[in-house]
Amino acid sequence: MGRALVGVLVGELYAATAGIGFMITVAGATFQTDKVFVGILIFAASGVILTTLLDRVERRFDKWRPNSVS
Amino acid sequence: MGVVAVMLFLTLWEFMVRALSAYNPIPFLRINPMFMSAPSLIWKAAMQLFGSGAIYNDLYVSGVECFWGYFLSVAVVIPFGIAGIKNGLCLRSFRQRDERHGAGRAFAAESLSGWASVFRLRRSIPNAHQCARRREDGAAKSSQRREKLRRVGVADFSQRGVSFHGRSFSPD
């Protein structure tokens, strides 16, 4: 999930006309530091939330896996 | 402890920006707020962005990009990996398909066979407990079948082989 979000961010930083990454680029170029931080916080929050959700889905579907003895 | 540390960091950040603002009486501690943000300013900007609705289109665009990127990677790469596990690292079959039909069709075929494996997985892969139970059930059924055949007199299983209707077959 982290890599997907990094891909979206980097893609939008360089080649996009809309999106949070594009908003960060525009805000950074126009010295609107607050908006830059808002964009970064949105990416961070979505990363945490989506990773937690996927973790739960993964735990739901790997019940068949035998317990590994460590 | 973690929450306290974060609160302390945010308070310190806010204080530093306020103390080092453009209105600071000490000249060398003056910084332009344009280059330095503060938690309260970020919160204000977020409220303004969400309140005016200017950010929703950007959120939608980024969400669509993220969804399609993630969905395509799941649809292609994970089945490819599962096909590899099921077929014993499917590189050989992939290479053969690549040579015959090209990389695109090879990828598609391996992914499809991976998806077929995904649908079979839920039914066919038992856990360790189910494996043991299946082994025991199989051994019990096999022994019942042998006993029945021996009782009827059709076949007799011995250590060396099997006799069937009076004719014996042995591994030798």
Q: How many discrete structural domains of chain B? A: 2
Question: What's the alpha carbon Rg of chain B, rounded to whole Å?
Answer: 35 Å
Order of helices and strands of chain A: HHH
Number of helices of chain B: 6
Helix/strand class of chain B: mainly alpha
Uncertain stretches of chain A: none
Oligomer: heterodimer
Counting DSSP E segments of at least 2 residues, the number of strands of chain B comes to 3
**Count of separate structural domains of chain A:** 1
Averaged pLDDT of chain A: 85
The averaged pLDDT of chain B comes out at: 76
Please estimate the helix content of chain B.
over 70%
* Range of strand content of chain B: 5-15%
Helix content of chain A: over 70%
Shape summary of chain A: elongated
**Major beta sheet summary of chain A:** none
**Which term fits the overall shape of chain B?**
elongated
User: How many helices of chain A does DSSP assign?
Assistant: 3
Rg from alpha-carbon coordinates of chain A:
17 Å
How is this structure best described in words?
The complex is a heterodimer of chains A (70) and B (172). Helix content of chain A is 74%, strand content 0%. By secondary structure, chain A is an all-alpha fold. Chain A has one domain. In chain A, helix 1 crosses helix 2 and helix 2 packs antiparallel against helix 3. Chain A is elongated, with a radius of gyration of 17 Å. Chain B is mostly helical. Chain B folds into two domains: 54 residues, no CATH class; 97 residues, no CATH class. Chain B has six helices and three strands. Chain B has a three-stranded antiparallel sheet with strand order 1-2-3. Chain B is elongated and about 115 Å long. Chains A and B meet through helix 1, helix 2 and helix 3 of A and helix 2 and helix 3 of B.
